[in-house]
Design a protein that fits this description.
By secondary structure, this protein is mainly beta. The protein is about 10% helix and about 65% strand. Strands 4-5-6-7-8 form a 5-stranded antiparallel sheet, with no helix packed on it. A hairpin with a 6-residue loop joins strand 7 and strand 8.
Length: about 150
């Protein structure tokens, strides 16, 4: 038997013999998420955010994610995301904006986990000069139930 085949066989045997670790079930769990897109003329901007938490006997674990993008035909586009970890507080914010002369589209999503509270809000706006701006807000908030 070749050495590489022997190493592969030993690796498979070790993986097969490893004791399975069972995941601990959540006593309380929740997820939130919002997102949105704005578009006007040759511009568009999108942002999204999501967060989740799981409370067990050993404590609470949380996760957060956010992102966005912006595009334009001839103007300028940018997007930026910041995520802050403050112990039991997680915060994320994404801003995306595209501008082409006076026409613009923008989207902003703020998402947070603060203890047992999960929240996400997305605001979008697009505008063409001489027309009324188009705005939208999406909000989602949950509080994990007590044990």
């Amino acid at each position: 038997m070749k050495l590489s085949n022997m190493i592969g066989a030993i690796s498979i045997a070790l993986l097969a013999s490893t004791a399975a670790v069972s995941a601990q079930e959540c006593d309380a769990a929740g997820t939130v998420g919002t997102g949105g897109t704005a578009a006007a003329g040759g511009t568009s901007a999108s942002s999204v955010g999501t967060a989740g938490a799981c409370r067990t006997d050993d404590g609470t674990t949380s996760s957060i994610g956010s992102g966005g993008s912006a595009a334009t035909v001839d103007g300028k586009a940018k997007s930026q995301t910041h995520i802050n970890d403050g112990g039991d507080k997680l915060k994320a914010q994404t801003k995306a904006q595209a501008v082409d002369q006076g026409t613009f589209s923008k989207s902003r999503t703020k998402t947070s986990v603060d203890g047992d509270t999960l929240q996400s809000t997305t605001r979008t706006m697009s505008h063409v000069p001489g027309e009324k701006p188009v705005k939208n807000t999406t909000n989602q908030k949950i509080i994990l139930p007590e044990e």
